[in-house]
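Entry 12.
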Amino acid sequence: MAALADKVILVTGATDGIGKGTAGELAAMGARILLHGRRAERVTQAKHDLGRIAPDARIDPFVADFSALAQVRELADAVIRRTDHLDILINNAGIGAGPSGAQRREQSADGHELRFAVNHLAPFLLTHLLLPLLAQGMPARVVNVASAAQRPIDFDNVMLERDYDGFRAYAQSKLAMVMATFEFARCLEEQAITVNAVHPGSLLDTKMVREGFGTPQGPVEQGIASEVFVATSPDLVDVTGTYFDELRPAKAHPQAYDADARRRLWRLSEQLTGLTGRSSG
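Predicted 3D structure (tokens):
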């Protein structure tokens, strides 16, 4: 129970599925959980549910819709006001390809393709904004919850205004997250902040999978174990810039290892999120 007693962990997208289960596991291990969700009523319910599982859990609720970058900034500000350090950031929040047979191109509040905005731009911005807190918690970790579904980014059609496909939108947003993971790790290599990405498991029993793919092929507990492992395993204390397929280091899409493509994505992401003076070089 005391394994994480002095740790403060932010889990985004923690009101159901893998995120909620991960938050519960970490709370049961003694961590103080900053629990994020998109809707206030679901955050309240998740806090109540986790409190029943772990009666001594320390859970602070936060609400933000990641389809609006202004709300991501508000979330970061709220976290900064309520804690003086952050040990682990788990960027778990995300959206899938959309309902099977009814996928359509959608835009975020800022006018960006929705899946690229929620799955990549929001965690990219949030991680940047929380770096000072992570520095206060060093050694600290960032865990980006990616996917084995990865498709290359066409920089001439990033927002998929042409030839839109929901699965393509999802898969390129997850590759963008992996590419950002590698660049964050490079930028932070002189600090005790590790940044890794993890594919928690294929077609697990989550709302996203049921909506987009039909019958799940694995239990949600599989994904929870993957996230908890990358977030807390003592064997990974010095491991950074790695893509994990569940519990094992693995190879991401080849574009993730293209330094020019990563820098191009980084600059674009800075522009789209309004960040300045943070170039990856």
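Annotation: DSSP finds eight helices and eight strands in the chain. Residues 194 and 238 are 7 Å apart (CA to CA).
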